[in-house]
Amino acid sequence: MSVRRSLAEIGADGKRRVHPKTLTRARAADTMPAMASYETRTRRFSRAEYDRLIELGVFQSDEHIELIGGELMVAEPKGAPHYTAVVKTAGALEAAFGPGWYVRREGPVGLDDDSEPEPDVAVVPGSPDDYSRAHPSRPVLTVEVSESSLAADRHRKGSLYARAGLADYWVLNLVDRVLEVYREPAADSAAPFGWRYTRSEVFDAAARVTPLAAPGSSVSVLLLLP
Fold first, then answer.
1. pLDDT tens-digit readout, 71-94
2. Residue whose C-alpha is closest to residue 223's, from 135, 107, 94
3. Residues near 26 by beta carbon (within 8 Å), at least 6 away in sequence
4. Structural domains in the chain plus CATH codes
5. Sequence-ordered list of residues with C-beta below 8 angstroms from that of 102, at least 6 positions apart, any chain
C-alpha cells in the first residue's frame, strides 16, 4: 500500500513551497498459507449399520429415529391427537382385515439396504411371531398420521414407499381432517427417490375406504380421526 506525504520547503524568494513526495511502504509478506478447498459431505448409513447402532444402544429409548434413504431422520413428535389417531387407525384396520393379518403400530419396516422407516401403522400378513427375527419388508397397507410432517409424508416418504413397490399408502391428514390415499407407484426421475404414486384420492370424514388387500371390507374415515 502507498502512503503520500507533502513536505514544505522555503524557496530563495522566501515563499513557502510544497513539493509532493511519495513515500512507499513495502507490502507485508503474506504469511497465511492458501486454504485447501474441501467439499462438505454427509455420512450415509446402510440398514445393517443402523441395526447395529440400535443393538449397541447408541440411541436413547425416547429418540424417534428412522433410516430414510441412508440418512438418520427424527420422526414427528407424537402429541395426544397424533397418538390417538394411531391407536384408532390400528383398531379399525384390525377389524377390517381380520385373522391372518398383523397390524403393527410404529414398527420398523426393512424396505431396502438403506431404508428402515417406522410408519405409524402397517398391515402385514401373519402374526407377530413371524417377525421375531426380521422386520417385515412389504406391508400390504402403510399409514402415516401427519400434522407437521404432512409435506414430507406426502412427497419424501411417498416416493420412498413407491420405490419399494408398496401398493397402498395412506396419509391421515390431521390438519384438514381427511384421508389421502396413494396408489399405483411408477418411476419418476423428479421424485425424491425416483418414484411416485400416480393415483391419489382424498376422502373426508363421511367417506369409507376399501384397502386393496381387503376388498371385502371398508373403513370409515371418521373412525380414524381423533
1. 777 777 778 999 999 999 999 999
2. 94
3. none
4. 77-223 (3.90.1570.10)
5. 123, 124, 125, 126, 127, 128, 130, 131
Tell me the C-alpha distance between 46 and 35, whole Å: 33
Q: Which residues of 91-106 are buried (b: 16+ CB within 10 A; e: fewer)?
A: ebbeebbeeebbbbbb
Burial class (CB in 10 A: 0-12, 13-18, 19+), 207: middle
pLDDT(61) > 80 = no
Tell whether the model's pLDDT for residue 34 goes beyond 70: no
Cβ distance 136 to 122 under 8 Å?
yes
Q: Report yes or no: 144 and 153 within 8 Å, Cβ to Cβ.
A: yes
- The 8-class DSSP code of residue 223 comes to G
C-alpha closest to that of 147 among 173, 126, 127: 173
Cell numbers representing residue 12 in the block: 530563495
What amino acid is encoded at 91 in this protein?
G
User: Would you say the pTM of this structure is higher than 0.85?
Assistant: no
Count of CB atoms situated within 10 Å of the CB of 162? 26
C-alpha cell at position 143: 399409514
Instruction: Tell me 135's DSSP state.
Output: -
Copy the grid coordinates of residue 79: 402429541
Comparing CA positions, the residue from 131, 132, 134, 78 lying closest to residue 106 is: 78
